Every structure is written in C-alpha cells, then in structure tokens.
Amino acid sequence: MGLMGGIFKALGFESENKTKKNKVKTKATFSLKNKKSSRAEDIDGVPIYYPETFEQTKEFVNFVKSKKAIIISIESCEKEIGVRIIDFLKGFCYGANARFIVLNDDKLYLILPEGMEIEE
User: Fold this and answer.
1) Does residue 120 fall inside a structural domain?
2) Residue 83, domain member (yes or no)
3) How far is the C-alpha of 72 from the C-alpha of 83, rounded, in Å?
4) Helix H or strand E encompassing 65
5) How far apart are CA 112 and CA 95, in angstroms?
6) What element of type H or E holds 47?
7) Share of the chain above pLDDT 90, in %
8) Do β-strands 42-43 and 70-73 pair in parallel, antiparallel, or remain unpaired?
9) Which of 26, 58, 61, 70 has the fewest C-beta atoms lying within 10 Å of its C-beta?
10) At what angle do helices 79-96 and 57-65 cross, to 10 degrees?
11) Is the pTM of this model over 0.90?
12) Chain-wide mean pLDDT for the chain?
C-alpha cells in the first residue's frame, strides 16, 4: 500500500472515479473539523496548507517542484482568492504533469508531483 493509499484508508475516504474522454477524476470526501477546532498540520505526513493570500501559491509550487505532495485547504480564505489560487494551481499542475485531486467539496485539494501515485 502506497503512502497516499495509507492516507485514504486511515482517514476513511470514500472515493468515486469518473471517466471522461480517457481522463480520470478522483473525488473523495473528508472533513477537517477537529474536536478541538485546531487545524490539522498534516495527514499521514503530507502537509496541509491554509492559504489566505494569492502570493502564498509560490510556496506551494516550489514544494511540488521539489517532488513533494501537498494538501491545500481554501476554507480560511476569501472565496475570490480561493478561486484564483485553485485556478493557478490547476494550470501549474497541467504544465508540470502533476495530479490535481479534489478531496472535499471544492475546499480540500491534493497535489501530487509527476511520478507520484496514490493507491485507489
């Protein structure tokens, strides 16, 4: 079982695959609401980032360029900024051959660098 498979199994993710023109989109559900209302800092070793400004995307891009998976949560930023961040990261992922996976209702996203796989 791979690293990401362990994440999904440990957290009880439910996933569904949808194919469209030979492309697979993965969706999973997960809630970041903790009992003590503190933010999770990582899930099974994969760091979670809570951006509040668009300028923070440079940090995420550098992280993925260094071949490390990251999780982005846009729950704490304004809607317009969150949309800009996600649109930018989707474009970056396309150009870098990284995978962009929606984990939770357009609020939680997993970015996997090229060559990194998850067990579904």
Assistant:
1) no
2) yes
3) 12
4) helix 57-65
5) 13
6) strand 46-49
7) 41
8) unpaired
9) 58
10) 20
11) no
12) 76
